[in-house]
Model the fold of this input.
Amino acid sequence: MILSAAWMLRWYGEKTGSSNYVTAGIAIDNAVINALSQGIHTPDLGGSYTTESFTLAIIKLI
Done:
């Protein structure tokens, strides 16, 4: 769901020519990649983070 929002922001930014939306989408993508590489995983990926704690971790990484 988080990546879907990031992709939507990037798509909208590219469609409208607004680099702010593209930048926001890229920031979210990078935060998710960083979280996963740091071992921040939800149970479906073998971790123990809840949806809420995973989301808070993403927000901190942005």
Remarks:
- Residues 2-61 form one domain.
- The first helix runs from residue 2 to 16.
